[in-house]
Amino acid sequence: MLNKNIETFIGCDKEYADSKIVLFGSPFDSTTSFRPGTRFASKAIRGDSFGIETYSPYQDKDLEDISVFDAGDLELSFGNTRKALGQIEEFAGQILKDEKIPCMIGGEHLVTLGAIRAVAKKHPDLHVIQFDAHADLRDDYLGESLSHATVIHRVWDLLGDNRIFQFGIRSGDRSEFQWGKDHVFTNKFNFNGLDEVVERLKGKPVYLTIDLDVLDPSQFPGTGTPEAGGVSFTELLNAILTVSGLNIVGMDVNELSPIYDQSGVSTAIACKILRELLLAVY
Predict the structure, then answer these.
(1) Which one, of 126, 222, 209, 133, lies nearest residue 172 by Cα?
(2) Helix 151-159 crosses helix 111-122 at what angle (to 10 degrees)?
(3) pLDDT for 48-75, tens place per residue?
(4) Which element (helix H / strand E) includes 71?
(5) Which of 56, 195, 213, 264 is the most exposed place for a label (fewest CB within 10 A)?
(6) What angle do CA 136, 162, 177 make, to 5 degrees?
(7) Could you tell me if 17 and 65 are in contact, meaning their C-beta atoms sit under 8 angstroms apart?
(8) Cα 250 → chain centroid
(9) What is the pTM of this model?
């Protein structure tokens, strides 16, 4: 008997009603300022996920033993950034209304804003942990206030001071770092101080956003804005495990641009990061 051909991330084929986490893709890269292509990430991650196992030897856990529903990709408006963000916010809001955790695959980093808008409505005391190479704190980029280069400043507009914690940051213009000193916590280059932040945020709702360009491009070249001097896969994995005990109410993995790594290694790393994130947070 023939069945519907539905491609999901490996092991994430449980029923929606039974699932604690809902995975979905936001294939949007309309404000990318250097190399576009992140719109293809979610499709590549789903397809290549069958090159890894559902079992994690790092955590001794298996995706087959947890309930994650893969809702597929949103059909977003590429010509209207505000509309696309609204579509993401609406979809994430429905997941939250049903008492589930949204886990988004980007897309460029701006898609995070749509998800956080929804999460912040449900959790007014929301805090954000950001793993990233870039500060993303510009107030505008080339006159545009909605950009992957401004996304965390827009998140600050929602949440205010002392609610955003950045790690791995190694790129931004001078004004971003100067402004950030008064408004966000920024740890440059690595994950030093993450344990202290986790202790501080215990019991509070947390959104975790992982921009994969936090990884060094020698390991992860498949991204739109590669920045030398990044962390290793193992360091990022350990950081995910460190924050996993917090009350994570939303999360995303973004900025894989698979066309810039024809070897497929960057996509394989993204698959493994997503597997470990799902298992750690569940």
Answers:
(1) 133
(2) 10
(3) 999 999 999 999 999 999 999 999 999 9
(4) strand 68-73
(5) 195
(6) 35
(7) no
(8) 9
(9) 0.97
